[in-house]
Specification:
With about 80 residues, the protein is mainly alpha-helical. The protein has helices at about 10-20, 25-55, 65-80. It has one domain (about 10-80). The protein is about 75% helix and about 0% strand. α1 (about 10-20) packs across α2 (about 25-55). The radius of gyration is 23 Å and the shape is elongated.
Length: about 80
């Protein structure tokens, strides 16, 4: 799909140089950049949703699990 966007001159010039350096069109560069931005936004939305879900959890540490984790960390330190 074709679309028109306005960009500050500095961003346009840097994007143009980057596209040339990568050997791709400006359109491809903009598409890749937008795709990366949208993926980051989706990941942030998932994190926010998980934070909301787990915010309601008790948050108490399972003492057995904590002891096992501590023991595993202590063993790793011995290897150094």
């Amino acid at each position: 799909m074709k679309t028109a966007v306005s960009l500050p001159d500095g961003i346009f010039k840097e994007a143009d140089r980057t596209a040339k350096r990568l050997g791709i069109s400006r359109s491809e560069l903009y598409a890749r950049a937008l795709e990366a931005f949208l993926a980051k936004q989706r990941a942030a939305e998932i994190t926010e949703a998980l934070d909301r879900v787990y915010a309601d959890e008790a948050g108490e540490t399972d003492t057995v699990l904590a002891a096992l984790q501590y023991g595993a960390l202590a063993e790793d330190e011995d290897d150094w």
